[in-house]
Amino acid sequence: MKSHTLIVILLPAMVAGNVPAVTCSDCHAIELTGPNLAAWDGDTGQWETVRDASLSPDDPKRLTGEPGVGAILNGPDGRTKHLLSKQQFGDVSVHIEFMVAKDSNSGVYFMGRYEVQVFDSWQKQSEYPGMECGGIYQRWDQGRTPPGFEGHSPRINASRAPGQWQSFDVVFRAPRFDAGGRKVANARFEKIVHNGVVVHEDVEVTGPTRAAAFDEEKPLGPLMLQGDHGPVAYRNIRLAPAGANPFFVLDNGVIDDKHQTPQAQAELLAELGYAGISVGLDQCPSLTELLSELDKRNLRLFTVYAGVNIDSGQEPYSPALTKAIETLDGRNTILWLFMQSRQHAPSSPAGDERAVAILRELALLAAKHKLRIALYPHHAFWLERVEDTVRLAGKVDRPNVGVTFNLCHWLRVDPNQSAEGLIKAAMPRLFAVSINGADSGGHDWKTLIQTLDRGTFDMTAFLQTLAQAGYTGPIGLQAYGIGGDAHDNLKRSMQAWQKHTRVLYGDVSPFGPPKKQ
Asked: What is the pTM assigned to this prediction?
């Protein structure tokens, strides 16, 4: 009665010559499509397998199926049970195709808990955030006013007309728990692509969305297809492991004589397989132009680096930051904020009160535009240590204010301290991490910032520490002061990243042994 093709599309990292590297997802990809409904658990109700689906010629609010296999349809009236896969998954990359009738409604629930909405949104305005096709559906609490909250609308309405096949490509990260069962990281939609258009990036979900199959959160769960809200058909459902964290590069690693323009920089990143870039606000003449070039290549602007001055009598931040926040509306970009002072010594809590007031003001403005703030510890600045950022973020106490772990600054300031303890203290507020090749025991930037293929620091062990702590967010390549040819530096760093990052693939056991290539 049904067939699925769960397609996991992880864009493979590229190495020299634009040849795709073999990734964990390539080796493990599985299909759930079959000649029956054997992949789905329990009573499957009126779901049936069909060769194809189309709008009923008598009623555009119904779907009709052609006999055969290759797709699944939720019965003659679109009011039947939900489907839950027998297999359970954590981090996963999914491709799924669907068709809705006019005004119909369904949903794809990751782990049976977190819904990406399937809906007839063709040429329609949204009733509330998350209701739209491709939306991340809202959570629900009858004790709140209104009871619906944390719905996330897609950046763009990419819907097609009823009766047309549509697609989602999703990279999803499961919540993380420590040894005692305490949640240390929320579930997160790393990317959702609707009909080839990026509609969400790096959106956290603090708990199960409305009408989830389970109220509690766990490390693994089934894929669920909603079957009782109207006629819907699915086909080509495939899953695979989500792979390593997104890997981006700071702009100081991209700019050289050959890569001065946003177009040239975006082309370089796309060629070498980077997920995107971070830019310094003072170094970017036009965020709008840069975003346009990145969007053309499905790349992301991960962070914008900007400064805050906490001294009394000084402007706390540039008007350019306010303008940038407006320009970045809806992109969930991270504002990477370093903080300086001449009145307070590095790490001095005496500056906290003023800093908290400034950050709460910025947090409110950022939240209106769906942006986050990650405090950036920087050697010799007032906000110098990871511990300082954790202390300050706790005092600010806003959900969109978190912290950063910068490898080079940590090595410069605290060379003898445990990274493991600091990372655990930073979770779950750890929004971003930067890395680079480095020499253990190095004392200047030449030894502490190198291309990723160089240096004596054990990068694989460091990434393993991140994974064990539950960190699933983006990781950026720091390249300050390295100089030389950007293409060569980035190519070698990407090759090193591919060697190091097997430890970030997470639990691949639900997918079975790797397939031979």
From this structure: 0.90
